[in-house]
Amino acid sequence: MPLDIQRLRRSKAWLKAKRNPALAFYMINLWTAAWHDVPAGSLEDDDDVLADLAMCDPIKWPKVKADVLHGWVKCSDGRLYNPTTCEKARESWASKAERLEKDANERERKRREREERSTMFAALREVNIVPAWNVTTRELRALHSSHVTTGHTPVRVTGPDSHGDTPEESRLRQGQGQGQGQGQGDLNPVEPPSEIESPTRAVDLSIAMRQFGIQSNPSDPRLLTLAEQGVTVETMRAAAEAAKKAKPDEAIAVGYVVSILQRWSKEAENLNAGGARPPPQRGNARDESRMAAAASIGLGGKNYDESGYIDGDIREIS
Q1: Given 47, 91, 188, 291, which is the most exposed site by the fewest CB atoms within 10 A?
Q2: How far apart are CA 318 and CA 315, in angstroms?
Q3: What's the structural domain count of the chain?
């Protein structure tokens, strides 16, 4: 039962209780009893019942009854009603009814969400996509909208295909087969992801991170940027795996995985191995002295081919 302190302290009933504190004890006992009675805020008009509920001595009750029942009203049903207690009861019931309606709506929402998730999981399995069981509903809806509702070609997100290839390798294998069959190999270049595909790719990147226990959200601006830049799911898996190996016992943030991708990108930009050649094979000092001695006696010369030197023997290659 709520107690309006300021309102109580300004009431005449509490003014009387200041002069006789026992009255406050009896009043509060009757208010709380009426709060739990039916109808709420009412009590039976019987002196024995009232004295017992007030926890007052029956002999003393007739003397204090008028002051204790100050403000109570007897209605047509023969019961005594306290207006303030009835007012608080109506407010409490309205709040309770609102909470009950809210709880019922929430239960219905969760029931429908469970049914929707079950339907989307079944539809995605039909196109060989099996998301994690704890994927968020937002990510699940994005996958369903991309690969089922809009009719896009399904992309396997659960691992290699029957050839042991990743999705990117599978598409490359398919393109090579088409090129050989046509003779000229009309392979169309892979187009960069469009703005429409970026949110779907961000969902795939988020799922790849979650597979390694890294909490991520596909609406994260960093993931959306990586998706727009064309970062593949395989690259994200590799970065997440590297982060997990670097910090096996720590919670890994998305920013740490992004830093690994940035480091890899810089290393790739600085890589320049276009003119790389294997180093020439050179013998040791002993081999060179033996070759010089052989040349001095006519067994070799300046046209002597080092490829004719086998297992430490000098031979003339005809």
Answers
A1: 188
A2: 9
A3: 2
